[in-house]
Amino acid sequence: MQTKKIAASFVGLALSHDWNRIPELSDEEIRILFSIVSIAGFKPAEIVRGKLVCYLRDVDGSKTGESFIVNNRCPYKVIGQDGNDCYRATGWLNGVLELVAGPSSSLWVRGKVLDSEKLAADIEREIERSIPLEPIRLTSNGDYLREPPPPFDECLVDHSRDDDKISAEAVGIHNLCGGWMDRWQSTETSDVLVCRRCYLRVLFPKEAKTYGKLRELVSFALSGFPA
User: Fold this and answer.
1) Is 226 part of any domain?
2) In a designed cystine with 29, which of 25, 140, 192, 199 is the match (CB 3.0 to 4.6 A)?
3) Which pTM does this prediction carry?
């Protein structure tokens, strides 16, 4: 119900402005932006006015000289809890605004009556698919497996779910060191997750074929340790 209400409020806000004129939003309207970003799974500290420029980098980390504006439709950007610009959250917010108010939006008309309920349903679906996979606890020492990150240049994307199958390589990200984790066979009955960066190894029964089953089996193995 909360998601439905926030989606409807966002659609109302999106349709109430000419975004080509870069409107100055009220505190209440900014709260709507904050709410939709939060419920979509991001962790914003604040929403501020301003354009966010992304500078493309080469494989060695150096800037290529090319750049693009992340929020070319929305004149507001998202600041994360670390105090830095949040590229994915800003891109997502810009994307859902584009869906409603952009020139190629999903906006449609029944006769001459705007179907805002359909627009709100579209945004509600984007909110639901934006929520990331809940990290999977791997050890009693605070090690978690996070889902593989979505492509850098895509914002409105599907995230991993518990019923998704686990691949052999690039299963996800180790939360503590940021390294990729791969799955390897260890014994006849067990597989192992190995971090490419810190070499953390986590054994688990080989019948775990999905993220949900991995979560269940590892949680059972750790049941003697309080979460």
Assistant:
1) no
2) 25
3) 0.83
